[in-house]
Design brief:
Blueprint: H1 2-59, H2 64-92, E1 94-96, E2 103-105, H3 131-149
Antiparallel strand pairs: 1-2
Helix pairs in contact: 1-2
Length: 150
């Protein structure tokens, strides 16, 4: 029955890994949809700002408060967009060079574009707690079988 237990353990590990990868893909897809929505909102806000500037120029009056509010609104959306990009990069294992802004894989130590040292981002590894009890069970099973045979 050792083969069956090993097969079952391997199957569970494969299913768990597939589930995690699927979960990551779903998270990335949701972030990309949110990013597209924010980009669309930013475009609409730029149009609104342009219309405001046109109206102020046409009326030859300055409404600094409305202008500042529109700019602050666009800045907030751009910040949200930056946060989403960082989350996507983290999920996909991408590092951004602090010097030139180039993006590269997390396993590089230096930027391929400018040669600057890249920040070290530790990859979160899942603890393999499921494998340890399975191995202990395999070791205990023969000992128990030997006792019953005596």
């Amino acid at each position: 029955m050792g083969f069956f237990d090993e097969f079952l353990s391997t199957t569970k590990n494969v299913a768990s890994t597939a589930g995690k990868k699927t979960d990551e893909a779903v998270k990335i897809s949701k972030l990309k949809v949110k990013k597209a929505q924010i980009n669309s909102d930013i475009k609409a806000k730029y149009e609104k700002l342009g219309a405001l500037v046109y109206q102020m120029a046409k009326a030859d009056e300055k409404d600094g408060e409305a202008f500042d509010t529109a700019i602050a609104d666009i800045d907030a959306s751009c910040d949200a967009l930056t946060d989403i990009d960082k989350q996507i990069d983290e999920l996909t294992g991408i590092v951004t060079c602090e010097k030139c802004g180039a993006k590269t894989k997390n396993d590089n130590n230096f930027c391929p574009k400018c040669g600057a040292k890249l920040p070290v981002i530790e990859v979160k590894e899942e603890p393999k707690a499921e494998e340890a009890p399975a191995e202990e069970a395999k070791e205990e099973a023969p000992a128990e079988e030997a006792k019953t045979e005596e």
